[in-house]
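Entry 14. Ran structure prediction on the chain below.
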Amino acid sequence: MRNITLWFAAVFLLLLNCNKPEPILEVGKYATFEKKVENTNAYSNKFADVELTTEFVSPSGKTTNFYGFFDGDGKGRGDSITGNTWKFRFMPNEIGEWKYTWTWSDGTKGGSGTFLCTETNARKGVLRPYDKNPRWFAYNGTESVWLKSYYESGHSSIAQPFQWIKDNVYQPMIDRGYNHLQVNWLLSLCCFEQYYHDGPEPTTKDLTLFKEGKAPSTMRLDVWQMMETHVDWLNQKDVGLHMFLGFDGSKNYGPKWINLSEAEKDFYVKYVVARLAPYANIAGWGYVWEVPGDRPEEELGWAQLVKKYDVFNHLRTYEDEHPTKNEYHRDAYNFAAIENHSIFSENRDEDRPYWKEPWTHHQACLDGYVAGKPVYMIEGNALWRRFWQQRTKATLDDLRQSAWACVTAGASFNWCGHAGEETLVAFGEEGLPFFGDDNPYAESAKHIDILSQIMSEELSFYNMVPSDDLLSKHDPKKVWCLSEKGKQYLVFASFGNPFDLDLEAADYTNSKWVDAKTGESQQVSDLALKNNESISFNPPSTETDWILILKTH
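Output, structure tokens:
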């Protein structure tokens, strides 16, 4: 009798557990939802012979269609014929219950499900032009953000132990306030001797993402897993990622975009977007460096495909080496990524001596702006120690002044204080400039800290626009202005150059000079202007650069 009782109790508990609903999955707003699904059908090429499509319905009823992707065994192993795992990802932007379905193009049975989007573990969202003043960037177009951006150039560092890279590369930058990285490893197409040689050896240097001309059949799933480990962790830290090398490996001895057929190009973009677009921190799809911007068979056609498939509308651009004649008016591009060439002259030999000049950075940023599309100085020749310093002989003064030249032109920028043209290292004189004073560019890192602190904490930079027209009796190659007229003004004066500034009538009671090298400040006497007036200013000295900040509150 006792055994029968125990048996019934066991059956009752089993039935109780069977009827208990599974807990609903919770996903943070703008975080990444992912689901694995299996398809055991035999395909000759699992990347391309069948398509996995998805439909997501938001709590408000909005429907979004997206794509899944073949991922081998789901753990970085497999190829075009081995493995049964497909995945699909999504980035929810509404709090509440989401519904989704998935289907297969060959009629294989799909399925459906739900998840709950919550504020817990929410991410910042997608960088876009700021709605109210698109000179600048903002999360989702509404929450303005000052980009503190660094060029992290470890091509094959994704194959080094992630814990080491996290502790010795990413975390020191994050601790210093960096929220944006320009990276070479996304996507992985070339240059695999570029890793941190003072760290552990990479597990492999064979990282080319796919074989030349064969993207739809040779995607390297192990490389994808390495990349996504970095993307995911940095996404959790809200660190934006801009692709410097982009989709085309032709300039770096990697797979060429033009060696793909139109159908293969379509597959390549769709596959990349399906894997990466659901990460909020993809902060700049790029084609490759220094292209003209108008070629339908290359960067323009590529950007049109990205626009077509990226339902999350991440930033996309091409790098324009000569921004005086740019193509950013095209709908395929939604921000500008520029270099500072052809500013002095269209003759390259005449122009080259001016690539280290701060004023060329300022003018390039002004020339690169198209209404509604913010400018990012992707490759300022005085802002990079790596590659450019040995060619231009730019000094630390040039770097600091060029950073301010970009800012006063209403632009964002990245910079680089490590060497590594031959051998990249994290530490020492040629390493990252965030570990003590061994590296001479640690001084530049401090200068960038001062700039970032002023822009993000002392000014409402997102309300300001370039305003050199307010200056007079000045050297236009040395003194530049950013303003929100009648409320706040910033003037940068290289080595204390004097200037006159046109001010609107107001009481300017919160004003000072700031030393751009040290961050030390000197108060400026209050100005009570009953009428618009041009005021003369003489910076405190000519031994350093000075920033004048005038504010009404």
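Confidence is low (pLDDT under 50) at residues 11-18. Will compare against last week's run tomorrow.
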